[in-house]
Amino acid sequence: MITIGGAIGVGLFLGSSLTIRLAGPGVILSYLFSAVIAVIVAYSIAEMAVVHPVAGSFGVYAQTYLNEWSGFAVRATYAFVQIIAIGAETTAVAVYCSMWFPAVPQWVWVVIVSVGLIAINAMQVGNFAEFEYWFAIIKVVAILAFILVGFGLIFGLGPVSAIGFSNLIAHGGFLPHGMRGVWLAMTLTLTSYMGVEIIGVTAGEVSQPEKTIPRAMRTVSLRLILFYMLSMVVMLSMTPWDKMGSGITGSPFVLTFATVGVPFAGSIMNLVVITAALSSANTNLYLTSRTLFSLAHDGYVPKAFGGLGRNGVPYVALIVSTAGMVAATLLAIFAPGRAFLMLYGVAVAGMFFVWIVILLAHVAFRRSLDQKRAALLPIHLPFSPYSQIAALISLAAITISTFYVDGLRYTVPSFMLFLLVITVFQWTLARLPLFAAYFSKISIFLTRS
Hints:
mainly alpha
């Protein structure tokens, strides 16, 4: 449920309008092709997690099977991406709360949400997981209800005549923009599955990982694919793709529930998307604190980040992970109209990089195993290493395609600048003893403080 909570964001509930504009009904294929890549990544990390159930997960695997730089870079990137996502999701909650309380400044909601999420993450991990379970299950119930009610309307089981599937082909055909549109839409549909790697991060705090992780990965992968695919089929069948609304009230979810006479459908969906944003922010805060904890144990950040409280929570790493919330608060005060977009779109290329490193590490991991040990793994990626190679080529091509999508053209250049900065930092820390000694003193000072 933590993985589902992290992977299913508010975009699905608000209509995925950009991907639909790019591909029309063909976006269903975009989600299907993206799902294949996501499953390959999911199974790759699951194989490594059952052998190495550690905090830091794929960062440790990259350092072990590739090189020290990739181990540091993938963890630093993941922490950076999650910190941005935390700020974006808390800002989203503020935007949705403004629908009910327009007179209250957005920054007030950001502060309230931030304090609540920090309190939840400061609890023992079992209590955190309980909160996240209930956050996530609200999203799951809303999606299942949408799918069931939607198919009822499509086949004429509700108060109106059957809608059927004509909207999938009646407005320019199933592929109004050809396969080019399907491919360009994958630059965004792929991000809908980003979150499947979360199971690897949680492996260090899971009992019996050799049993739990394979079972969770199989069920999560299947559920995510079904949720996205069936939701998009219902969504595009009920509403012509070229007339798809945006915002809460224009969401196909609201349209569906209003059609069958559900009272206050808009307010109910507002509550659902608030819960969806809280769930994602809650998961991202957990992931960031554990990633910083892992970096501390390898000496890349002050050792204080690796300290644990009595209940096993890395408090210093947790506090640093709230940087995205601080940024969200400042943006909500000084730029409330642009806050969400300023925080959200920065991280796309970063997650592509994370998935590429995971796949490269898995190829090296498989090469390190003899045939007998590989056969004993409790979960197996089919057609390895050809499946990883196909996924790597696809990810590289999709990354290049961001230059042809409005709003994503600068994501790769921006990320390359970030990658250069952290590379210089890592090189300096490894090559210059004086810098490393000074960094160590800072670490000791923070630990004592």
